Known about the structure:
By secondary structure, the chain is of the alpha+beta class. The chain has helices at residues 24-31, 54-63; strands at residues 2-7, 15-18, 38-41, 46-49, 67-70, 73-74. Strands 3-4-2-1-5-6 form a 6-stranded mixed β-sheet, covered by helices on one side. Strand 1 and strand 2 form a beta hairpin. The two termini are 13 Å apart. 16% of the residues are buried.
Amino acid sequence: MNVMLERLGQDYDDVLVNFEHNDESAVAAMVALPLRARWWDSTFKTWRIHPGYVGRLAANLRSLGYTVVDGGDPQ
Length: 75
């Protein structure tokens, strides 16, 4: 199971998080983040998170058995 992180903008203002649409475990890891750190972008059907929470989310996902890929490099 893979989760892709994609950093946006020159200063990495947001990080996009992509995974299978119906993946309940990955969604649970997302909603465990504080509300101010995450939001659902319904236009692009992706999660956006504050870059300060990437490490926490990646650790949570890894503990659930996911492979986290950041810009093509597994973390």
